[in-house]
Amino acid sequence: DEIEALRLGIALVAGASDPASARAAATLRAKISAAAPSRAEEPGSDSFVFASAEAARAAPHLALIRRAIRDHLTLALVYRGQGGAQEHRLRPLHLDNWGQVWTLTSWSETTGDFRIFRVDQMESLGPDGGAFLPEAGKTAEDYLARLVAP
Q: Cα(119)–Cα(59) distance, rounded to whole angstroms?
């Protein structure tokens, strides 16, 4: 069951992430297969496949988002929402995968509030040359606390 859980996670990363993460997942899968071969590794027996148009559209942005979260870099975003294109300056805080859709939880310097953006609907995303320090009221933990507040 544990090896199968690892293989499930690897398949998710391989099919719904950026190219660097997909390569890392393939390398890890090969190492696990060498250490713990199973019937699930026989040709044609892939139990888990994750692929979607949404994930493919999100993939080009994921490596940058991960780096910006890790290094506290601000990002310039043009987002395609229901009301048309919107520009935001973001503090990226957290990435979530909802099966086929990636979302970015962020603090928008533009609106002065938390915003969640679907990564597949980002028209353009890039570093804006800025950085930020975690600030009370503007962190992923603050966002989560707001969700569970009575």
A: 8
Query: Rounded to 5 degrees, what are φ and ψ at 30?
Result: -65, -40
What domains, with CATH codes, occur in the chain? Answer: 2-41 (no CATH), 53-148 (2.30.30.100)
Residue 92's alpha-carbon distances to 38, 57, 143, in angstroms, are 40, 18, 12
Q: Which residues contact 49 (CB under 8 A, 6 or more apart)?
A: 11, 15
Contact 91, 138 (CB under 8 A): yes
Rounded Cα gap, residues 125 and 119, in angstroms:
10
Q: What pLDDT, in 10s, does the model give residues 75-112?
A: 999 998 888 899 999 999 999 988 788 899 999 999 99
Neighbours of 70 (CB within 10 A): 9
What pTM was computed for the model?
0.71
